[in-house]
Amino acid sequence: MKLKFIALGISIFTFFTAAQAKIWRVNNNAGVQADFTSFTDVINSASVAAGDTIHMEASSTDYSVTTMTKRLVVIGLGYFLNPADATYPANPGLQASAFSSGLSGFTIANGANGSKFLGIRLSSISINGTAAPISLTFEKCFFSSGIFFASAAHSGITIRKCFFSNSRIEATGGSLTNFVCENNIFYTTFSFINLPVLTGANNIFRNNSLSGVGVGCTIANCYVANNISDAPGWTFTNCSIKNNLFSNAQTLPGTATNNLISVSIPSVYVGGSTGSLDSRMALKAGSPALAAGLTLGPVITPDCGAYGATDPYKLSGIPNIPSIYTLTVPISIPSGSSTMSVTFSTRNNN
């Protein structure tokens, strides 16, 4: 089993290249040799420099840290991987590991400006930096609690192709500028948007899918396009609103264009009670969201929702780096044998 964890952790990320000075492995599984066993040790280590890449390897136990004060690229394995998980059913055949990489209950503060998170399971993330721009990117991540902004000036937050489960994005004090939120899925009752403090002209909320949401959403000073929403209502302030689908009888300003209201959500998504939660958010045949987005150029009319546009949501948040999706390792080696057979299959996920 020790070999299995080492092989999986190394092989998934061996071919990933970036401009960072060094790549570090973090693994808290017993018996596995890695550079670190906790994310706290990564932050505290004088050897880990700003701009380094951290590979968070598969574990059933979250990695914890109180405050992140270092600019890093943090990469995990994605989510919805465990076939035995009835709460979050898996997308089969995407990773050999049944476990993802989780970080929980931490604050991103000054010093972490420019950090990126890819394929990580995140819970209760507070953004508390006061140096602008904070410039954080969350891509293909799973959120189980939300992203909360402290009452300060924040700028340059990008959230793309993530899955929010009973999880929200909320900033009710200070200010937030240059905010981009696109191709994300917001699933179940408490997955909502509360961003009344957005300011400036470069905020985007585009190609997101909301399903089962039970709380109203608030957004200001934002370009809002190609979204599918079944939230009970939206409060828009100074927004450009184009080509969205609303399940309720949403009141829209006179400047809004090409939006559909009172749309039947069962007619939009594949839905159902089987398969992974994100696969249920794909558009069904004949969906009113198909080719309902804002036309790009003379010939491209994208679908609305997370699976639309030129860079759509990807099942399970699998990072666009090589991964092992099947792995067979002998449980034991016969006495006196000098070799063993290991079988694995890989894909590049581009």
Descriptive overview:
The protein has helices spanning 2-13, 39-44, and strands at 23-26, 53-56, 63-64, 67-68, 73-75, 102-108, 116-118, 121-127, 136-139, 142-143, 146-149, 152-160, 163-165, 168-170, 174-182, 185-187, 193-195, 204-206, 209-211, 217-220, 223-225, 228-229, 234-237, 240-242, 245-246, 323-328, 343-347. The strands form 4 sheets. Strands 3, 4, 6, 8, 10, 11, 13, 14, 16, 17, 19, 20 and 23 form a 13-stranded parallel β-sheet that branches. The chain has one domain (16-321). Helices cover 5% and strands 31% of the residues. Mean pLDDT is 89; it is low at 1-20. The radius of gyration is 21 Å and the shape is globular. The protein has 350 residues and is mostly beta strands.
| Total domain count | 1
Provide the low-confidence segments as ranges.
1-20
Alpha carbon gap, first and last residue: 29 Å
| Morphology | globular
Number of helices: 2
Report the radius of gyration as a whole number of Å.
Answer: 21 Å
Our estimate of the beta-strand percent is: 25-35%
Major sheet details: 13 strands, parallel
